[in-house]
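We treat protein structure as text, and this decision shapes the records that our systems exchange. The tokens are whole numbers drawn from a learned vocabulary of local backbone shapes. One such record is reproduced below, unchanged from the form in which we store it:
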Amino acid sequence: MLKWILVTAFGYQGYRNARFGRIEVHEAINAYAREVLATLMARAEAAGYRVVHGIVDSLWLDPTDPEHPPDARGFADAVGREFGLPLAYEGRYAWVVFLPSVGTGFGVPNRYYGRFRTGEYKLRGIGSRRHDTPKLLRSYETELLELFGRSEDAPGVRALVPAALERTDRFAERLLAGSWPLEELLLSHRLAQAPSEYSVFTDTVAALRQLRDVGMERAPGESVRYVVVDRRARSYRDRVRVAETLDDRTTYDAEAYLDLLARAAETMMAPLGVDRERVRARWPRKGGSDAPRYRSGERPGQRQLAWA
């Protein structure tokens, strides 16, 4: 609770409409945090670490001599006493993947996933951490984490990229076959404003209009769930199907979900040299002349699906 209060108070200092906020206080807090972090980085390098990443309350360090790493807990205790700020040792990673920013392409410290040497995972900023991620993509990310979890170091993770792309292809094949359960394709969107205030025709707007037709409304803060039926449709009746009106006759737009799958693959593997265009090019277009690709000597249906 104290952390929530402090984080809220800190952000409010820089809010332009804050009644008791002062931008100078916001700037001073940031300046103090930068000074502490910069000094801590210098201490870490002197103690035998290479700084991998850092944020206002965390620092990721890599021992320069992996065979004889420094005492991490001892280092944390010593600098904590020096600064008068308790510094906790979270654990040692077997490997960690920092995901790139959408805008700059550089790694950002609040979007990453990694596995500790204890076998536990830490996930931040990937789809599995978001409330609006469909079960399709949660299952996909879970499979990739299970696959990468077999590796004990970063080179081992890189070596598993071909196998990860193979698993991605299996998901794509089932999507193209039209056999994915609709309840696992439901997209969720939480409203930030009243339905009448949306001016651009999007999937969410189409879903809200469908709900209005059946006498159901959504208020700001509430969510709407839907399956994409035809993302090119101009009519809100044909573009999506809200969860409340799904039936056995409902189909889904495979191309739309293939694009989401390719985006998820890029999110998980961009630091490993994978982008969504490369992934999307591996799959035939729905209704196109390209036939699904199989390995040499492999027959359709022969490949064992990861979820079977």
User: Anything to note?
Assistant: The mean pLDDT is 85. The first strand starts at residue 49 and ends at 55. The chain is about 40% helix and 15% strand.
